[in-house]
Amino acid sequence: MSDAVAMPHSLTAPSEDRAGPLSLDVRDIVLRFGETTVLDGLSFALGASGCTMVMGANGSGKSMLLKLLHGLMEPSAGHISWGGYAPQEVTARQALVFQKPVLLRRTVAANIDFVLKTRGKDRARVTALLDHVGLTQKADQPARLLSGGEAQRLALARALATDPEVLFLDEPTASLDPASVLAIERSVSDARDRGVRIIFVTHDVGQARRMADDVVFLHRGRVAEHSPSTEFFAGPRSSAARDYLNGRIVV
Amino acid sequence: MQSISEAFGLALALVLSGDADLIEIVLLSLRVSLTATVVACLIGLPIGALVAIARFRGRNAVLIVMNALMGLPPVVVGLLVYLYLSRSGPLGFLGLLYTPTAMIIAQTILIAPIVAALSRQVLEDLHAEYADQFRSLCLTRVQTIQALLWDARYSLLTVGLAGFGRAVAEVGAVIIVGGNIDHLTRVMTTAIALETSKGDLALALALGIILLVIALCVNGAVQSVRMTAVKQAYV
Amino acid sequence: MFAKHVTATALALVIGGGAWAQEAIIVQSTTSTANSGLYDYLLPIFTDKTGITVNVVAVGTGQAIKNAENCDGDVLLVHAKASEEKFVADGFGTERTDLMYNDFVVVGPAADPAGVAGMTDVQGALAQIAERGALFASRGDDSGTHKKELQLWAESGVDPTSASGEWYRETGSGMGATLNTGIGMGAYVLTDRATWISFENKQDYTIAVQGDEDMFNQYGVIPINPAKCPSVNVDAAQSFADWLVSAEGQEVIAGFKVADQQLFFPNAPQN
Which of A16, B4, B16, B26 has its CA 20 to 30 A from that of B145? Predict the structure, then answer.
């Protein structure tokens, strides 16, 4: 896998003219499914760069939050703004790596080529992207026969192929082998260092410590705490986050 | 019962002797029904895909109609195509009646709804898996349909087979628009009908056995392609 | 690749389908003539001589006439004189010429439930079948044979349609299918001799009634009128019709035999 410094130029596309940086402002969003309220008046704001880890117990609405921010769903109430744009208007400037990678029924290389082609990118970048996630040897293999770690690395390479300004990751390393976890973390860190806005959902406290610039902690459909990483892991202010870090289940 | 054992012997003898008339009829059957299947796929797959991913008012009604059209009676299709292609009909100037092309048209109309309805189900299931990823990638509707059709290609082979099976087995439509003309529009099923009407039940049954074997071969070929695809997790 | 290959195959198949003989005509005719094998015998001789390919659509006389009225043919060759004359009178055909005849017979099972075996008076035999309520299978398809049968019933003073579904069974099918059905249920069937002789599924059936002049089955040939149907291949149609009624064509018809029996008896007027 290539080093961040030695990254071949062809991995990233020439920068395009894009209107305004994508800073995020989330105001009082509510998400309901019938009687169930998943998000209940959630608010926070993020700058246009850095790596934010979203944490919280199962069912606290983390995955739903990513889909709302990415414009794949509409909130029941509230307001989301990306530098003045609605999420649906900037979906194309963002990419999402799902917890369970959705791979096309094609070869590994064809999965990346598909994205480059449909998004009008330089299709010669397939080689560099495969190399970047360490899948060069697997280029011509059926994607759906990859191991869990390989599959998720491919999904990440595919997301990077779109040259996103914002990269969402939804527990991408849950139950992966340590080598793949490391590879994904290094790749995401590279992207962050190149100025890509990272919003990363995880349950892995160690991972959050390694990656986070700041932490958004969700509890009962609200933001219980939003602190810089050092403060959060030194001593969370909210009791919910404290219980969570101490391994006590929070419902 | 005597006819049945006689038929197997006759079928074998016909095949082994390489009977020229039989070969001609078999090739025409395959040409007509395979062409109809390909054309029906070119028409039915995009329609199936569009209905699979689109959400619109009256979609349920469209689904019911599509599914109901799978049961189109061949003889009704044949009659409709006859009325259009007849010299006195609106398309009579084309001079297509009693040609293999007319038979292809009739069978295409017969099986395009089958291809559309079955592919709709296949593609809708696949889209359920891909939808979020595709929306994240901001694919256009056309790109989505193309990707679904490509990724479902091996499942859609089975859909095509269902269409081919119905086309190659039907007699009602081709006998009306083809006329069962010897050396021109006679296919396996119309030849079977003819031999039955001549009372030569053994020969009719022998032709039926040969038709069945052909269908088995086509299905076997497609199945082996599918098995390869299954191994590669492309299905 | 996949899609391109499929499209190419489709194109190849469709384009390959366009090949047509230079000179070809369509004859709308009856199952009885086609099933007997007459055309298989006669057409190659005509084609060798003239280079004209003759394609035969074999359906019931009613459907053949209807198809011809729709201009879907060049020559009509059927056996229902009254309908044929009406066809010409309505302007669909140029001229009707007597071509040949064969005769009808009533076939029945060996058990002969109506006791008509050996009779020559067909009207009397039909009346007896009706009286005994023995099964009778009718074409019921408006074909030449069906029309002939109805005429014979009328002459025998019986209205069989009132017993339709009881002893009188209308199959609504071609001659062969009706024979298969009739033999399957043990019913008497009126059929033309040509079909019967070449029919392969006779089982225990034999001819019960034959020899009545009222059972003659006259065939006529009619070129379709180009004034009504501009698509008609006039010259080829006319040369086929002319050849059939010529001394040579008539001789060929007389020479057609199945199981050493002559099936059709040419009777075109010779000048």
Answer: A16
Per-residue pLDDT of chain C (271 residues; tens, 9 = 90+): 444 454 444 444 444 443 344 589 999 999 888 888 999 999 999 999 999 999 999 998 889 999 999 999 999 999 989 999 999 999 999 999 999 999 999 999 999 999 999 999 999 999 999 999 999 999 988 888 999 999 999 999 999 999 998 999 999 888 888 999 999 999 999 999 988 998 989 999 999 999 999 999 899 999 999 999 999 999 999 999 999 999 999 999 999 998 898 999 999 998 6
Contact predicate C31/C59, CB 8 Å: yes
Percent of chain B with pLDDT over 70: 99
- DSSP assignment of chain C equals -HHHHHHHHHHHHHHHTT---SSEEEEEEEHHHHHHTHHHHHHHHHHHHH--EEEEEEE-HHHHHHHHHTT--SEEEES-HHHHHHHHHTTSBS--EEEEEEEEEEEE-TT-TT--TT---HHHHHHHHHHHT--EEE--SS-HHHHHHHHHHHHHT--GGGGBTTTEEE--S-HHHHHHHHHHHT-EEEEEHHHHHH-S--TT-EEEE---GGGEEEEEEEEBPTTT-TTS-HHHHHHHHHHHHSHHHHHHHHT-EETTEE--EE-----
Domains of chain A, CATH where assigned: 22-102+166-245 (3.40.50.300)
Cα distances from B200 to residues B184, B193, C30, C199, C201, in angstroms, run: 22, 10, 18, 7, 6
Of A226 and C172, the structure prediction assigns the larger pLDDT to A226
Length of chain B: 235
CATH architecture of C103-215: 3-Layer(aba) Sandwich (3.40)
What's the CATH code, domain C17-101+218-266? 3.40.190.10
Q: Phi/psi zone of residue A196: left (φ > 0), alpha (ψ -120 to 50 degrees), beta?
A: beta
pLDDT the model gives residue C16: 41
Sorted by sequence, the CB contacts under 8 Å of residue C73 that are 6+ apart come out as: C25, C26, C27, C28, C57, C64, C67, C224
| Phi and psi angles of residue A110, each rounded to the nearest 5 degrees, phi first | -65, -30
Listed by start position, the domains of chain B span 2-231
For residues A192 and A202, what is the distance between their CA atoms, to the nearest angstrom? 16
Say what the pLDDT of residue B1 is.
Answer: 54
Tell me what the mean pLDDT of segment B167-177 comes to: 95
Q: Decide if A67 touches B, using CB distance below 8 A.
A: yes
Predicted pLDDT of residue B197: 86
Are A67 and B132 inside 8 Å of each other by CB? yes
Token couple for C258:
């199945």
| Residue among A72, A105, A115 whose CB faces B234 most closely | A105
Chain centre distance of CA B32: 9
ipTM: 0.87
Q: DSSP assignment of B10-59, as one string?
A: HHHHHHHHT-HHHHHHHHHHHHHHHHHHHHHHHHHHHHHHHHHH---TTH
Going by C-beta distance under 8 Å and a sequence separation of 6 or more, which residues neighbour residue C137?
A: C169, C170, C171, C178, C181, C182, C185, C187, C188, C189
pTM for the structure as a whole: 0.83
**Contact check, Cβ <8 Å, A70/B136:** yes
Q: Where are the domains positioned within chain C?
A: 17-101+218-266, 103-215
CB-CB under 8 Å, B99 with C26 = no
B 44-103 residues with CB below 8 A of C? 86-89, 92, 95, 97-101
Do the beta carbons of residue A185 and residue A210 sit within 8 Å? yes
* Bridge partners, residue A170, by sequence: A201
**What dotted CATH number matches B2-231?**
1.10.3720.10
* Yes or no, beta carbons of B98 and C72 under 8 Å apart: yes
pLDDT band, very low/low/confident/very high, at A5 (cuts 50, 70, 90):
very low
